[in-house]
Write a structure and sequence with these properties.
Chain lengths: ~350, ~650
Amino acid sequence: MKKLCVISLLGMALMLSGLILGALPSGKTAEVFAKDDLSFFKRKTIVLIVSTRPGGDYDFFGRLVARGMQKYLPGSTVIVKNVPGGGMVIGANEIYKAAPNGLTIGTFNSGIIVGQLTKSPGVHFDLAKFTWLGNAAVFPRFLAIGTKTPYKKIEDLKTAPTPVKFPSSGVGSSAHNDGLMLKEIFGINIEMIPGYGGARTDMAVMRGDVDGRIGSYPSVMKNVKEGLVRPILQWGVKADDLPEVPFLPEIAPAGKKKIAALLDAMAFIGRPFAAPPNMPEARKKTIRKAFEQTLKDPEILAMAKKAQRTLTYHTGPDVEKKILEVLDQPPEVISFLKKMVE
Amino acid sequence: MIEACLLGLMSLFKPDALMPLLLGTFLGVMVGFIPGLGGNFLLAILIPFTFKMNPVATFALLLSSHSLITTGGSISAILFNTPGSGMNAATVLDGFPMTKNGQAGQAVGAAITASMVGGVIGVVALLGVIPVMKPMVLAFGPPEFFMLTMLGISVISSLGGNLAKGLLMGFVGLILSLVGQDPISGQVRFTFGQIYLWNGIKIIPTVLGIFAISEMIHLGAKGGSLVEATSYIPRQVVRDIMQGCRAVFRYFGLTFRCSLIGIVIGFLPGLGGEAAGFFCYGHALQTSKKRENFGNGEIEGVIAPEAANNSKEGGCLIPTIGFGIPGTSAMAILLGAFMIQGLVPGPQMFTERLDLTFSMAWTVALANLIGGLALLPLTSQLTRLVFLRGTLMVPIILMFAVLGAYSYANHFADITLTLFFGIFGYFVVKRLRYPPAPFLIGLVLGRIAETNLQISLKIYGWQFLLQPLTLVMVFLLLVSLSFPVFKAVRQKTKITFDRLKREDLFFVAVVIGFLLLFLLLSFGYKPIARTVPVILILPALAIAFLRLSPNLIEFFKGPDKDRKKADIPEDAGSQPAEITRVILWCCALVAGIWLLGFVLFVPVFILLYLKTHKEKWPLAILLSVLTFVLLKGFFLMLLKVHLYQGYIPDLLMRHDIFYF
């Protein structure tokens, strides 16, 4: 009995010393009273949550932003934490629930808007309330049709004799949602074939199991360069090197403008960076500024260029405005979306 | 081409490439050896460091470290029954029994040599296959993938031991693999409202639980060490190791075939690296003359998976470099490195940048050779670790298992999953002697099989079975399935079902309960999402009831006079009190990490565990402090790996009271 007491006392002492030792390298108490908010980040660890597994574009941009933020929040250490799962919802949830002190930020894709609009049970965030840092990269999204098929324009797909097949990684994925929305907008005869996770979509296109591909610029351009597909529709933002490809907001039929606008806006919002809601103003300004500086930093831009990616900065308020627009959808769009994810 | 080959080799001998190569080799073996920390973890940590490195050095570091993970992992699989990485799971099946038979040296020697040979064969194949690469990769579509997974699953029926037990575990694994959101229909199945389960039950935390944690529960309850030291003769061990090395060449046919299988599985995206070990283990079992002894310590059972999981590395580089299609999830991370370096995978890698491709190939080959050769002399010392007393081993391995589970996807729930499977593994695998391999094969391959079947049906209808390559595989499948049938016929085995003892009875009853629950849930799902679960649950129920039948008959008819004694569980000596105590320690670890986070709680846990097991103060404090330095200094500060914060530290930071 006495031994147990001694042991547990020692255990507690160790914990206490751990608390102290743990604090020594990192922070002091009551940094909150500092006048200059930048000094809050000295010797602190910031976690940047990337809602996908390591590797891939989101991860790459997350790591670039992490490097930049560390430079512009002097004294801080920014750690990238990959939190994949649930179609990026798990990562978004974690960002949302973190403490709004600037020590947690993160990125996910705009597709989770659909999850919120359809009140998906796993969604524990409200996109309207996130503290938006801004956007680092905006890619055009394409619908590209196989070069071996006879179709040249999006209108041709309306009269296709058999359903034109497009791969997606699964029901609820971006490509899948995009395809179904385009089907609704244009009345085209296409069929989404889910189940082609990850690299399997590329293989399906190469094998000719499918007739085309829907996706973002980097993924689709790979197949375009191989001569396998050609883009016949783009949305989100116009690709500089493909101005002749029709742009969705310009050719969407009158009755379907709302859905077209949603699709376009989701691509435009792309892969935003956010922090938890209810952040104090001064802190919000500080991290938004660091984010902006990151995206204008020549070294960071050079690293992106080397990887053949372009960084396009959109400010926090811009992204916030777009998000609020997008969250305001009429009931018929919402019921279409609900049917879509079923 | 020769020029590029030589250029590639020479570029590795410059100090700025040689250093990363050697460092990577060392790191790979170390991280592989530590149970729980796997290949993707190391790659993800190393990526940020490559921003400022040149391409040759980058891949020298990344590829060497990744290739050696399974080599290091095989050692802990053999010595401690805990696979160092998910891909070493198959190695424990015969590796650890060999250790218990006093043949640890042979096993480790064979594993390391098989890894080396497999790795080199993998690289040679990579280079040799380049001209036919594209048609080869493209020959495999959903129908072929489906058949491959069926081939893998069919191995379940051949795995040694009680057929009914194996099949039941196999079906349970297959059914559990369906947990999550079905990509084909979007139907979320069997998640009980937890979004965490939407992506399914992850294999790595499961493997860690079933092997590492269950072994530690067993060790903690029984006391002593993993293997009781009767006599230890250093020279004997060295001789054993050499014997193991030679075995790889004695069974060269097997080594070679498994290397080829590993390469194929590597370059097929979507199968996952873990499948390679099991496929080859099954192949070894089906082609071996000593197949009856598999599971009790047959060296072929070690050579086969180890050759495959190293050759797989060469295999998965093929589509990765060739088309930017990652063969495994680790390759997806590697593609990130391509991006950072400004390289584009594709034809240029085999034309303008052929020298870089060759340097990558040489990296894998050299790393395997250097790593293996450097490791062999050390293994004689490493094998002594099995005699380490349990009071030291248990907390340390528990710590790494939990760390590995968390690091997999940074979900705290993975730690709870590991704990759950640890307890499951202890009772079901260790005490009741149900084989883990069928369960794991089912878990890895089940959903992949279903997805590919559904796509194949959608695109081709049932005619998909008539495609040439698919037909070949159907034939192979029938051959594979006929093995247990022939065996039974030849040995004139009577299919008997022994009366189940109490624990087994309880387990089977629980399984029946869970199967019925899942069946009920299935009827609420969309038809296309309902079919495969029902097809799996019904036979599983049948087998479960068959196992139960003697007890049911007895229940209704009254006890039989000449009952046979059922299996005695391995842990018959451990008292329930001891077992409960260890399990409570495991639960305390998980709860403590939830409350206080890794950095604060784990050192305390180590100290408390050691002291309550009567270890001396200096050692306890030393290990505790070392753990703290490891977690805070090494992981957090140096490697920038996020460790779970803990509820209380988070609360303190949230209210600006204290920052960590």
